[in-house]
Amino acid sequence: MERLRYSVSLVNQGKHRFYTLTMPSDVLAETCFVSSRDEDPKAGFQRHLDADRAQAIAEYIDSGHGTIPTSIILSAQPQAELKDVGKGKTIEIVKSPKAFLILDGQHRVYGFSKAKTKILRIPVVIYNDLSRKDESRLFIDINTKQRPVPNELLLDIKKLAEYETDNEQILGEVFDLFQDSPASPLMGLMSPAAKASGKISRVTFNAALKPHLAIFSSLSSEESFEALAAYLSALIESGKQLKVLDHITKPQVFRAVIFLFGDVAQKVQDRHGKDYSAANFNEILRPMFQRLKNSLWNDTTSYVKLHAQMADALKTTFTL
Fold it and tell me: Which CDD domains does UniProt cross-reference here (predicted)?
């Protein structure tokens, strides 16, 4: 078996000691596995992983701009025959197919192995002499104590990273107008980077507006904002008796009232052409709210049911 040497730093942390180093991606691919119960390291490795996620990592690396600086965390197995040959500064290992059990970073290792870009230097942490109990506990700690970044924050910073899709850019611009414009009927009710009680997050806002993107396809962000702001202003004014403003920040309520926008805008267009003013929206909405009961908000668990009640009240009886 081929023996390899790497320069390392020895770290003492609590009751554990581990080495930090960088290893070539091809060596990781040939020496790592993900389950101590698998006889075939390669088959077991692939069986436990999401190939699409690994492929996305590979393509990110191959783009030429990809960088993943977080360390792969490994537990050296007896097959690695890990030896400290340099007083905590150099280690020697055997290049064996089951040298290292991966405690964290399975998809990154798999992604690196699928990348066309070969021989990357990958940050690695190697624990040695761990029992199965220690490995299991470390795996649980690593995979339960790390918290993912909230979707609200990711959407908020995508603009800075220039990672937005075209739809995300449009929705982001309209959201920002509702947050910052003096003409916004939702001023003070928007939360751009996090979930907040009594406020509308980017995730809720995007989920509500996405079904209407086709309606706004010919409009600028400012024009889309003006039409929606007029609608929401009229909705809040017409629904004072039902205290719409007290409920509109609830995700299901917001999605329901935005879902209703297309129906109301169509009625405005039928009567007034493309004059989407608050007064014209109010003309359509006032009779609807007169037909609705205060108990409308008793069940706000489903925006579909809530929309259905409002859409039904929006209908008028036709007479000659």
Answer: DGQHR_domain
Residue 231 domain boundaries: 151-314
Tell me: do 128 and 267 sit in the same domain.
no
Task: Dig out the tokens for 298 from the structure.
Answer: 């008793």
> Do 227 and 291 sit in the same domain of this protein?
yes
> Could you report the per-residue pLDDT of 3-53, keeping only the tens digit for each?
999 999 999 988 888 999 999 988 998 899 887 555 554 444 444 677 888
pTM for the structure as a whole: 0.64
Question: Over 70: is that where the pLDDT of 290 sits?
Answer: yes
Rounded to whole angstroms, the Cα distance separating 205 from 228 reads 12
| Residues facing residue 222 across a β-bridge | none
- pLDDT, tens digit (0-9, with 9 covering 90-100), for 44-92: 444 467 788 888 888 888 887 667 888 999 999 999 999 999 888 999 9
> Distance (Å, rounded) from C-alpha 178 to C-alpha 248?
14
Statement to judge: residues 187 and 310 lie in one domain:
yes
Domain annotation covers residue 139: yes
Q: Indicate the DSSP class of residue 126.
A: E
- Same-domain pairing of 131 and 155: no
Query: Which helix (H) or strand (E) covers residue 251, if one does?
Result: helix 251-259
* φ and ψ of 102, to 5 deg: -85, 120
The helix/strand count (H/E) of the chain reads as 14, 11
Residues sharing a CB contact under 8 Å with residue 182, sequence separation 6 or more, in sequence order: none
Last residue of a domain, one of 130, 145, 160: 145
Same domain, 214 and 136: no
What are the Cα distances from residue 36, in Å, to 79, 168, 247?
12, 43, 52
Q: Exposed, middle or buried, 185 (CB in 10 Å: 0-12/13-18/19+)?
A: buried
